[in-house]
Structure formats: C-alpha cells, structure tokens
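Lecture 7 notes: from sequence to structure.

We start with a single chain of 310 residues. Read the sequence below before looking at the structure.
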Amino acid sequence: MAKQYPIRVVSRMTGVSLDTIRAWERRYKVVKPDRSARGRLYDEADVQRFMQLRFAVGKGYSISEVAALPEEELNALISAARQDVPMASPPRDSTPQSRIDAVLAAVETFDSARVNEELGRLAALLSPVDFVHQVALPLMRETGDRWHAGTLQTAHEHMVTEIVRDLLGAMARLNRPADALPGIVATTPAGELHDLAALAATVLAGVRGFPVAYLGPNLPAEQILFAVRKFEPQVLLLGLTTPEPVSLAVETVRAVAAGLPPDVELWLGGVGAQTLACGQPSSVTYIGDLNALERNLSRIQHLPSTRNLP
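Now the structure, written as tokens:
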C-alpha cells in the first residue's frame, strides 16, 4: 500500500501552511486526498503537487494561474522559472540575521507552527541556493551555538533540525536531474548522525541538474559501496560535521576510501573531515564549506556521465 500522510505532516514536508492547503483544495481542487477516521490523507503525488505549486507561487505566479496545470506543463514552467526568472526578494528591512532571530524566538517557546510558517515563507521567497546559504545552514549554526551556550536545549535543536530537514528534502524532491551530468552519491558514514549539511549539498547539486542519490545519515561502509556500485556516480560525498568524528566514522571513511572504484572521486565535507583528508589518497577532495562545494560542482559539471543509462 502506498504511503499516506496526514495534513499536518504534509504541511511540514512542503512548507505550505495548513490554511493554505485547505484553501487550495477547497477553491482550486489541486488534489483529491483520501478520507479516513484520522482525517484527510495525502499520497506522494499529492505532496509533490503541493511542493510544485508552492514553488510556482513563490516565483510570482498566482495560484489561480497554476492550480489547473497538468504535471508536465507545471514542471516545464518550474524549469523555465528556475533558469530565467529571479525569485522575489524578502522585504528590504528583513536581514538574514533578523529572519533567523524571528525563527529562534518561536523555537524557544516550541511554537512549531510559527517556525514552519516563517521557514516556509522564506523557502517560497528565496531560491533553493539562497535558502541554503542564507537561512538553513546559518540557522543550524546559530542553533548549535545557543545550545552550546545553554540558552537552547536539545529538544529545541531537534525541533529545528526536523523542520529544516523536511524543507530541504522537499526542495531536493523538486529537482529534475539531467542524465548527461555526472552522478553523485551523498551520505554520512556510520557514527555520523548529523546529515543536514550533506542534505544541503544534495539540494545545491540538484539545482544544477546533477543526478543525486541521497542515502541519509549513519551508513556503514559496505552499504555505501553497494550504492556506489549500483548508481555508478562520479562522486561520493561523505559529510562529517562533528568536529571530532567518532572512531566508527573514521573507520568507515577509511574502508570506503580503500574500496571505492578508482574512477569515483571521494569528497569529504564538513569540519570533521579536515584531519581525515590529510592522510587520504590524492583522489580525495576536502570540501571545507559550501563555496568549495560550488567550485567543485562547477569543475565536474562538464565531465561526461559514466553511468550505464537504459
């Protein structure tokens, strides 16, 4: 049976508020959810539709213009908008830090509805690249700093992480890969539980059209190498955001480096990767920050794909 989601989960996944979901259904019949004793239930296609519509509305189209478009036309509109039409800008008096402060003020009181609303609005206004650079990662850094200072608790950090992960995942699912571009596998090694930076990298690569297989966090070496054999990427990106990686993560990286096919580049990203990269073969690239990621994506963009496509 296909997986189904209640309306609150759909709102969190897509960044579309509950009231907006209800209004789009009622006025424009954008989806037809199933009904159950638990209320309305939405499948993956419904979730994808809401994400597409949110993106189009964020680009300046009215919901009445795009609600009735078939999927093929809506995808074409989104593709053209990404290439040619600049995103609407947030209000001029809204600096990145003021946006983050507003989100964290809601986090402090566990006002998840407001956090979802604030971040969903920014996700709609900003391009995926700007959202990653200006909102998602700075927000997580600030959250971590406040956690270390004792002004936020672990429960606060978990709430922010889950909401940001849902939004980045939604952005990643909107991307349409180009088969001619090199493929990328992204994950974190076993023992590394923090995956938002790897997921953000997936969004940035996907926006450029790279086919990306994102595997989530905490994966053992044999499973990483299995995915590489099946997907046949040109790049394997491992995220290590913990400053001092646990021994299991170190062992996993070393096992992967030893077993990786010679034509696959190994990229190690995050503050925890710096010491590991020093002792690795010359085929390993250290990705110190997102600017380094963008430079390396540009470097490989013109490499021919080596994947065996049907």
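Residues 184-300 form a domain with the Rossmann fold fold (CATH 3.40.50.280). Keep this in mind for problem set 3.
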